[in-house]
Queue: 2 jobs
Job 1
Amino acid sequence: MNNNSLLSHRKEEPENGILYIVGTPIGNLNDISQRALNILQNVSLVACEDTRQTKKIMNKFNISNKLISFNKHNSLVKIPKILKDLKEGKSIAIVSDAGMPGICDPGEDIARRVKSEGIDMICVPGACAAITALVSSGLPSSSFVFEGFLPKKKIDREKILSEISKNEKTTIIYESPKRLRKLLNELLELCGGDREIIVARELTKKFEEHVGNNINKVIEFFRDKDIIGEITIVIKGKRKGDFNPDKSIIKKDLIDLIDAGLSLSSASKYLAKKNGLKKSEVYNLI
Ligand code: SAM
């Protein structure tokens, strides 16, 4: 089969092959689209984050094709090879282990390169945990912020968490089950216990669960539980007058920072920024 015939809606067939970015399920294999299966069957090769994961889909739907591994560890070597194949007229599909490639998964770099080389690229949309969690959260979903995984480095993490606490839009975060408790406590400190939040666990899978209410109640729910599975968190945006940060905690932080050697002015400035307050409000706490 001519690979370019996959691009059925275009009038002129390009000389280069086409890169198909193919969304796959985030748990329930039946969420794969017929079009995705068609592409996976008919391209020259499928570049997979982990060939074992992709084989599960291929086997379930009785399709076979050449699979190569394409992930963050080998992308520097693989991207030039994929570009060469595309320029030779081969069409290639990129898939990640789950969901949409490029969304916290390999795919972003190759998409940028392919675009800059003027090669055709088509996305075959599939499931995405962020969108699935957002839509099922019942929180405002027409305008939102997706943060992916938060940085681990303290200073970067604090900056993003502070932004999230002040943002008026719904925010979506990916988090590992091991770090969920820590994240919930960080959100409690910055957003207050009343902020609405939904923890979506194991979306589309057998033990799918949506734990939601406010931050206090979600923390309580997970208090004595083993937290396992895949997790996406949806946080309601801040409304005016929503949260009065706990001034006693801020006062304690202020004293700690001054004890550690910071001036009252610098410590107040730092804590004001962190808590979304005016510097004078912190300064006047002591
Ligand atoms: N590319 C994927 C997408 O489109 O959603 C995301 C890949 S990212 C490496 C994996 C993270 O997505 C998980 O750690 C979790 O936060 C979230 N995730 C993936 N599948 C999920 C599911 N079934 N339920 C809840 N969250 C999920």
Job 2
Amino acid sequence: MICKTILNILLCHIIDTEVVALNKTSEIICQAYAESRKALLENEAKTICAEYNIPVTKFKLAKTVKESIEAAQQIGFPVVLKIVSPDIIHKSDSGGVMLNLKNVNNVKNAFNEIMDNVKRYNEKARILGVLVQEMAPSSIEVIIGAVKDPQFGQTLMFGLGGIFVEILKDVTFRVAPILKEDASEMINEIKAYPLLKGYRNTPPADIDALTMLLVNTSGLIMENPEIKELDLNPVIVYERGLKVVDTRIILE
Ligand code: ADP
Ligand code: MG
């Protein structure tokens, strides 16, 4: 593990001379270390997830109202706008998340509102722009977390979103790496599993997609020991497929 970190730091030093072509994940991690940032930006964390076949919402970084509108038109309405700032970790607390924007006018107003809210919340925050992204339709929500435990190393957590995690603490843990069978067990053993299987008029959630998501997340944290914490929260799960709408990665 230490070797990988040292290798990355060495590679960071030679990036400028373009001696090596790094993969996107290493490049992003190097860049963050070079800027003394431990929390990755949402666009960086989502780019890393996408490299590990984790389905994230389509996104585009925009610096101006004009760029936001162009991005929204490319992605397709409705869209979501979110603040991108190295100084803001909890984006909705700062008034930095605007959902379900249906047209050009909504996007324009949301951009200006986010800038006002965030400046009021933290006048010193460095603002890099907004992340324009597809608005994922609502469905059942789950959470995947990973932390590097001092004793056990990379550990995965899985549970249903909202009150299931926060109040009922209905979650399950495994030390990574995990196999498909372990992922299936994790999904099966939470108390809320019957909700994933479908009930009354609610269709079943795509358990296979969820299994692969856990396995791919395990791969991501095992291959990148610099990652101290990772949160996919929430992940919206459909009858077919799923979408990760927010991603947080903290480096050591
Ligand atoms: P925070 O940094 O506050 O956790 P999030 O990115 O999680 O910000 O956004 C807050 C909430 O907005 C999410 O929990 C989710 O309910 C909703 N949300 C965020 N992004 C999307 C999206 N692309 N599609 C649908 N809902 C979203
Ligand atoms: Mg979130």
